[in-house]
Amino acid sequence: MPNAYSLHIGLNNVDPTHYDGWNGQLYCCENDALFFHELAEKAGIKNRKLLLSSGSQGAEMPISANLDKYLEQFSKILKSGDFLFITYSGHGGQIEDLNFDEDTDALDETWCLYDRQYVDDELWQHFSKFQKGVRVLMISDSCHSGSISKAADSPKDIEVGGLLEEITKKMNLVTRNAPRHITFNAYKKNKEQYYSATHKPIVIREDIAATVLLLAACRDEEKASEWDGYGLFTSTIKKVLSTNKAITNYEDWLEKILKQIPAIQTPTLFTYGSGADLFRKEKIFQVNSNGTNPFTFFDPEQHAVPQKVKEGLLIDLGNDATVKRDVTATPAIQLKEAGQDATNSWDEAYKEYFSLRATNPEAFVEPDAKSKYLKESPIAKSADGNSYMSNWPKPPATLGIDEFIWHLDDIHSQLRMAAARVRKKLKITDELSTVPDDIIKIAHIDTGYIPTHPATPRFLVKEAGVSFVNGEPDNKGTDVMNRIKFMEQDGHGSATLAILAGNYIKKDDSYTGYEGFFGGIPFAKIIPIRICDTVYNAFNANDVAQGIEYAIEMGCEVITMSMAGYPTRRVAKAVNKAYEAGVVIVTAAGNNWIKGISKLTPKAVMYPARFDRVIAACGVCYNEKPYDFAANEEEMKLRSEGGDTMQGNWGPEKAMQTALAAYTPNLAWANNNPNNNYRFSKAGGGTSSATPQIAAAAALWIAYNRQELIDKQYKGTWKQAEAVRQALFQSGGVDYPGYKKYYGNGSLKASAALDMSDNILAMELKPAEEASVSFLGIGKFVSQWFRALPEKGALPETVQPTDKQLQEMMSVEIMQVLYKDPALFDYLDTLDLDGADQDYFNRPAARDKFKTLIKASPYASTTLKALL
């Protein structure tokens, strides 16, 4: 039986003491390594090793000694027919060729390991020791990787080099290129470490008995880039494996990769050694030499970082506290084996519930659900960050310098006018030199803030900042910027924070010459609460709930969160706690896409925005029409094709009763890109931009009516939160005839809300419906579906499908499946499950069809399917 081994190397940084003070910061290389590690597992490779710069996942450090150790081991244990899979993700470098075996450029290519560069001659030497018949598959996602394993005949195409460099710069991509002055200086200062590597005897093709196949990210003269959580090359590999069920061999694989990868880099494939031509024609990952191939392709719906992680269970024992317990579980979206049902973290939750129920019938268990606030693909984005999105309404140049803050004007949000009225009433000077000690506090739940950005709020309470991201116990809410550098969604928290309470902007930092305060309420005190790295990374339900509870503890009266995800009871309880304490919560309704990844996102309002006690922030354009392509159809016909394909979520009718719209897209969006002439781009969008505007208006209303709220004893009670909500809802703009459908209560008019203060304070208030996963529309039908006994063995004998807690858990899982499975999006987008369409499932045919779809869904747990 042939043996198979794999080695996966990922470096997000290197040791600056060796690299002339340079730490080589990258953001996605470890993600690549973990992806390839799981790819090896899917191929049936049981002997796998990880070398990661963070040392996480039990990995060893990616140093030269460890690479030497494993390659030496492989050369001794691998026999004819055996298979070795090696991947490297990190910086690629070049140093001077000292043994004159480079015919074309007199440069040796290198991998930048943590302690030093690993020269291509060293890899060549190791491979020369392998036995005949050993097959070595290498994937190198690094710059200058075309001949890292040596002997490549890569064509040089210097003429296009400048053009590709310019495209890379415009797309704001991070490249995995170690600058030549760094690699050359590192070599010169540490010559003794490189002597053996650079003076090895020349090995020629004829010396190689094994077969080596290299799949490289780019040609030697090109640079490899990072995008969307992975290397661009690795991301393309992942996409190809997800969308192509018939890849015949390695040549076919390369051809499909070349068709999908952007033209800024050109992957290459070459083989050498005994049987090289046969290796190219093999099925990919044909581990066994007998022709069988255990490799199964990834599920097309898989769009999270594919790694097994410690999934958390949230255990509520019927008291006020929720216990979190880590369990070894499969990802919420499972990579399925052919012909097998997927087990997900909900199965772990049911298992825990069954074990607890005998001693605590009030127990409720749910996964610490990971939500992914998706962004569109890089290919669809405009390369020019200083241009408006051409397919959406934009402010005219006739506005002059105020074009930069068009959303604040009296025609749109009225935030500038409302802020001036509050400053006058509270006697705050225009310069904001000081503010009252009891001025409004706002909690900003996002990715954190960038301290050096000019728009960082003046009254940010830095010492009260907090991070709930794992491994950041000392972080006070700053954005670590440790993912995809300079991209739209990196620094997301700083951008939404600027819209909320941005500081004084100088002329040189705006694209119109505007000078003045940028935020809707620049004199508010802001508590930064960081819950995730970037919005396209998953954020946990427990982190959101902890963020809300921390905001209450810190005395915040408004919470803004420009994110959206799946319903969970943990978050519902936190929402209720905040509302009862008088805190106004504003969260994004969510976004969807009309093409590209549109099938992965529903159009309906997401959670927690869909809870009645939360204001759902929807979108309204510059022209007062909805942030929706269909609603802007006439205008869209006059605009150029391409550009942004994202639009805002809305509906169903019940969800819109507590919704309000604010202005997006084509807002000024704070960025931290040094390649940009300004510190803002014109292409801010999404309901992320709308959310902080509504939060700012809520805070202005509280500050304006501070004494009146105290006198009526509303402060600290649900009545303060509801008074604010009613003021915003009843003053909403209704210029667009279909506002109820898209905006709910209209478009934001902050100053008009202040005008309604007396009326609101005199009215009889009623509390909003409690946020509860027990009443998510379909929950009431669960008992009907589960009346029949499930198949034998599906449940412990002591548990019946009529148990209230079990029904509630099933209800939450079903709702999460609806938000995850594109085959079920129509139920969210077209049916008002919480309102007018509650009787839909009373029809047997409709109920049976729905159950059939749930049972067929790869997102549903095996426990749920057994009960159905």
Relevant CATH superfamily of the largest domain:
Peptidase S8/S53 domain
| Overall shape | globular
Number of domains: 4
Structural class: alpha/beta
> Total helix count?
26
Overall mean pLDDT score? 81
Percentage of residues in DSSP E strands? 15-25%
CATH class membership of the largest domain: Alpha Beta
Biggest sheet strand order reads: 18-21-17-23-24-26-28
In CATH terms, what is the fold-level topology of the largest domain?
Rossmann fold
Largest sheet: 7 strands, parallel
Low-confidence stretches: 99-105, 147-164, 298-310, 328-343, 373-385, 482-489, 636-643
Per CATH, which architecture of the largest domain? 3-Layer(aba) Sandwich
Distance between the termini: 43 Å
**Helix coverage percent:** 25-40%
Radius of gyration: 29 Å
- Say how many strands there are: 30
Describe it for me?
The structure is a single chain. This protein has 868 residues and is an alpha/beta fold. It has 4 domains: 4-281, Rossmann fold, CATH 3.40.50; 310-371, no CATH class; 405-762, Peptidase S8/S53 domain (Rossmann fold); 776-867, no CATH class. Helix content is 30%, strand content 16%. It has a 7-stranded parallel sheet with strand order 18-21-17-23-24-26-28, sandwiched between helices. A 6-stranded mixed sheet has the order 2-1-3-7-9-12, with helices on both faces. Strands 4-5-6 form a 3-stranded antiparallel sheet. A hairpin with a 5-residue loop joins strand 13 and strand 14. It starts with a strand and ends with a helix. The model is unreliable at 99-105, 147-164, 298-310, 328-343, 373-385, 482-489 and 636-643 (pLDDT under 50).
